[in-house]
Specification:
Layout: H1 57-79, H2 87-100, E1 104-105, E2 118-121, E3 124-126, E4 140-149, E5 152-161, H3 167-185, H4 194-206, E6 210-211, E7 217-219, E8 226-230, E9 246-249, E10 252-254, E11 260-262, E12 269-271, E13 277-279, E14 282-286, E15 291-293
Antiparallel strand pairs: 1-4, 2-4, 3-12, 4-5, 6-10, 7-8, 9-14, 10-13, 11-12, 14-15
Bound molecules: 2-amino-4-trifluoromethylsulfanyl-butyric acid and cobalt (II) ion (2 copies).
């Protein structure tokens, strides 16, 4: 059980009611003329491809376009966050913006995922399914947008505040975003993948936060999820980054336990102790001297 005094250093924290599932509405249609990724139509979860995704100039241009769209969509989705909005309303708006841009919402039909975006509230650490539940004052919500445009996926997520959020939770969210940026800062051609998890853990540990090891960053490009898997916790993975390669970094930090439980829907994943979790994600391109954040504009 998650206890108030585990909100380290806080006096203003308020306990949120536990997350409950709402109703998931019917699947939204996608126009026939929008190209769909190959997994659409199969209920099976695609295997993580072992191929790293390294691009030529044309591939980089396409990655850029997909990633800029994903970045615009996540920011737009963030403007919709307020008490009483449902995550289903956010999903609908995101779905419409993506298809209006001629792109496909990558989560829709990925391993049977029924919606176009992941909406993860409070103790939901990731893969929340949009439903009829209304956001409440004091909630936090991670909105994770992936779009498939011109044959390439762009993947990004941010955690937003709904109304007045307690200081301790605000700090968790701020530090999680800092961890993402510290992780990106160690990236460059030739750098070891394991430096990312080391740097992220160092920063999180300063605040006593947990780094979830169950969910990882991933190669991305024409395939949604591929090698390299990017660990956000301390690890001894071998291998180093290559110029022209694209992958995501997407740390999840928690105020309490990093253990997780997944609902029977096979997606919604919560912290085992009900403590709040925050996540941020960017898709990056490895260059000779560093990394470029592609999911920005
Ligand atoms: N966007 C998520 C990621 O960061 C993956 C979501 S898969 C879904 O990798 F099916 F849940 F949408
Ligand atoms: Co994502
Ligand atoms: Co991702």
């Amino acid at each position: 059980m998650y206890r108030e005094r585990e909100l380290r250093g806080s006096t203003t924290a308020t306990r949120r009611p536990p997350l409950r599932r709402g109703r998931v509405s019917q699947r939204l249609p996608v126009p026939d003329d929008i190209p769909k990724p190959p997994y659409v139509g199969s209920r099976e979860l695609p295997e993580i491809s072992s191929e790293h995704q390294i691009h030529d100039a044309e591939g980089i241009a396409r990655m850029r376009a997909a990633c800029v769209l994903a970045a615009r969509v996540v920011d737009y989705a963030g403007t919709l966050v307020r008490p009483s909005v449902t995550t289903n309303e956010i999903d609908k708006a995101v779905h419409q913006m993506i298809i209006d841009a001629g792109a496909y919402p990558s989560p829709l039909g990925y391993g049977g995922f029924p919606k176009s975006v992941c909406t993860s509230v409070n103790e939901c650490m990731c893969h929340g399914i949009p439903d009829s539940r209304q956001l409440q004052d004091g909630d936090i919500i991670n909105i994770d947008v992936t779009v498939y445009l011109n044959g390439y996926h762009g993947d990004t997520s941010k955690t937003f505040f709904c109304g007045d959020v307690s200081e301790s939770i605000k700090r968790l969210v701020k530090v999680t975003e800092e961890c993402l940026h510290y992780g990106i800062a160690v990236c460059r051609d030739g750098a070891l993948y394991r430096k990312i998890g080391k740097r992220i853990s160092e920063h999180a540990e300063k605040f006593g936060y947990g780094v979830v090891d169950r969910f990882v960053g991933h190669g991305i490009g024409t395939v949604f999820h591929s090698e390299p898997l990017i660990f956000h916790h301390r690890n001894d993975k071998s291998g180093s980054m290559v110029e022209g390669q694209t992958f995501t970094i997407e740390p999840i930090l928690t105020l309490g336990s990093t253990e997780c439980v997944t609902w029977e829907d096979n997606w919604t994943t919560l912290t085992a102790d009900g403590s709040p979790a925050a996540q941020f994600e960017h898709t990056i391109l490895i260059t000779k001297t560093g990394a470029e954040i592609l999911t920005t504009y």
